[in-house]
Design brief:
This protein has one helix and eight strands. The chain is mainly β. Helix content is 6%, strand content 39%. The strands form two sheets. A five-stranded antiparallel sheet has the order 7-3-5-6-8, with no helix packed on it. It has a three-stranded antiparallel sheet with strand order 2-1-4, with no helix packed on it.
Length: 127
Amino acid sequence: FFFSSRRRHTRCSGVSWARRCVQETDTGQGQYSVQELDIPELKEDQVLVKIDAFSINLIDIRQLNANNPPGTIQPIGLQATGIVIAASGSEFSNLLHKRVSCYSSNKGLFSNYAVLDKREAAEIPLD
């Protein structure tokens, strides 16, 4: 569903775009769609994560059922796991190619890629 596009990747680690699920409230009723976004160049202390899995939990349900004003586009998804495919800053290069747990309250992690601040991604130990 999120991975059906055949656009050419050219930017950060070969990735120039991402898709995420959003809730649109144009009519006052929540409708869901997939939004395509350009991935910006990473700023200092950011990582690019290829999302493998995301969760749906009570907080997500409350977020979806919130009474957002008409015209609001709300990214969906607070928690996910994935692999870091790019990192900015030598201090964070140790996360490159590692599996991480992600949390973000405003970026919408129901997506195929996410740019996150380093503090929003924690390595998952293999042991």
